[in-house]
Amino acid sequence: MMLGRFKRYLLKRRLGILHKNIDITENSTFGDWEKIVWHDNIYIGPYAYIWAVGGLEICENVIIGPRVTIHTSNHRFKGASMLPYDGYSYLKKVTIEKNVWIGDGVMIVPGVTIGEGSVVAMGSVVTKDVPKFSIVGGNPAQVIGRRDIERYKELDEKGMHYMKLKKLGKVKWTYLDG
Q: Considering 19, 39, 71, 75, which one is annotated as catalytic?
């Protein structure tokens, strides 16, 4: 179910993204949202949990699937003055470069960069930087393939970006077998 038009307006106003093509579906949680740098043409799926105290940049044409968790800080436990951790946290910015697709249920740890044009498979746990144009999957996420870079660049240069084309009413769904 999508957010009502008025609720979506209020959320986008609060997040400071009112005049951008950003679609945030219902029941997402944002902590320290003022530390998120939003580019254009972004989709955030339902039940995303994004904690941005350490800083987060989401570049243009990024699709973030349902139930994705992004953290940008971690408790100090090594050398801590209490157990299991103390009152200190390490801040580590997360960057999601342009034209990235993050699948359902992905978890992203503090301090990583997901490189341009990458695809992160459903259920993956991203614990280190993802190289540009990679397809990664697993726990921890590992490179399992590469994008067709020539085709990627051709589509990028032609402006064939899903969220931009969806806004213009130029996306038609067709289901394929297999």
A: 75
